[in-house]
Amino acid sequence: MKVGLDVGGTKTDVVAVDAGGAIVGRVRLATGWGPEAVTATVIDGVRALGTDAGVDVAAIRSVGIGIPGQVEPGGGRVVHAVNLGVDELDLAAAVEPVLGVPVRVENDVKAAAFGAYALHGGSGSMAYLNLGTGIAAGIVSHGELWRGARGTAGEVGHISVDPAGPLCRCGQHGCIEALAGGGAIAERWGRPGALPVRDVFDAAEQGDPAARELRSGLARGVASAVRILVLTADVDSVVLGGGVTALGDRLMADVAAELAASAEASPFMRSLRLEERVELLPAGSPAAALGAALVGAARDSEEALAHG
Questions:
Q1: How many CA atoms lie within 13 A of 276 on its CB side?
Q2: Is residue 183 part of a domain?
Q3: Whole-prediction pTM value?
Q4: For 286, which of 21, 95, 164, 280 is 20 to 30 Å away at the CA?
Q5: How far apart are the first and last CA of the chain?
Q6: Same domain flag for 69 and 153
Q7: Phi, psi of 249 (to 5 degrees)
Q8: How far is Cα 299 from Cα 291, in angstroms, rounded to an integer?
Q9: Does residue 118 fall inside a structural domain?
Q10: Between 304 and 206, residue with greater pLDDT
């Protein structure tokens, strides 16, 4: 039995995966704030599989954790997880003695890429594009994650596609994240609401000019990310996940229209059939937690799918 956790800014998703790859238990709990509370969340999440999901915790042989921030490849230390109140934390060292099994830690988007790849069939090449508060991607080809020379492969959110566009938190103008990130859209919308991006879509359909501009920018940003991922890595498919994808068909229709419009004048772009290579991760999919479980069970993160 292997366990995976997706530690998010507000909620943590925990799954238990049996030897055949089936998810046999799943629980969710609130994520604590700060290093000690995050550590407690991980420990409580694993224990909750036994108390709340009926999993035999004695059968657990490994734990993998997907978490925001920068994670040293093959290590257990996370830094700059600002949404969790964590500047630096050796999470594996903190929880291994308590859980009594090997623990591996991976960046949450990279873990989600592993999980999405497994759910997608585990063959060929795929980019997982996470549309959440921020924008980032993980690229998996034939079971291996492409990290790049310094681990920044897939950081498409901070590619500027409009030098005259809105200011991004990274200091550039017109980054994909500034156009399509949920946090940037909510900030520019500036109106109270539980789901600001959904509110923007609703207002755009009612003719609000500010909302229409934001909605158009979101589609342009996502379509730009898709084009970049295909043109640089030539992946078979781009799978969209993250909180913004709760918009479902409304988001996909906008992105497809943007991709089609950009291909009208270019036979080359039309030949790439980008609209056919983009799809949504199924709603409620535990991709990040599943990917974390695969990472935790592997001797090396790069073997997560080949041997997970």
A1: 6
A2: yes
A3: 0.90
A4: 95
A5: 11
A6: no
A7: -65, -30
A8: 14
A9: no
A10: 206
* Whether 87 and 161 share a structural domain: no
Domain ranges, residue 229: 123-280
| CATH label of the domain that carries residue 296 | 3.30.420.40
* Environment class of 20 (CB within 10 Å of its CB; exposed 0-12, middle 13-18, buried 19+): exposed
Q: Are strands 77-81 and 135-141 parallel, antiparallel or unpaired?
A: unpaired
Q: What order do you get walking across the sheet with 77-81 strand by strand?
A: 70-71, 77-81, 86-90
Quick check: 134 and 126 in contact, CB under 8 A?
no
Confidence of residue 30 (pLDDT cuts 50, 70, 90): very high
The residue whose two tokens read 């997970």 is: 308
Radius of gyration, CA atoms only, the chain: 19
Q: What's the confidence (pLDDT) of residue 152?
A: 82
Question: In the chain, pLDDT over 70 holds for what percent of residues?
Answer: 97
Report the alpha-carbon distance of residue 193 to residue 244 in Å, rounded.
Answer: 15
Model pLDDT, residue 308: 43
Q: Shortest CA distance to 158 belongs to which of 193, 182, 134?
A: 134
Is the CA virtual torsion 225, 230, 235, 238 positive or negative? positive
Q: Are residues 130 and 266 in the same domain?
A: yes
pLDDT at 297 over 50: yes
> What pLDDT sits at residue 299?
61
Tell whether 139 and 199 lie within a shared domain: yes
Q: How many domains does the chain have?
A: 2
SS3 content of the chain, % helix, strand, coil (to 5): 45, 25, 30
User: Between β-strands 77-81 and 70-71, what pairing exists: parallel, antiparallel or unpaired?
Assistant: antiparallel
> Under 8 Å CB-to-CB from 169, ≥6 apart: which residues?
177, 178, 184
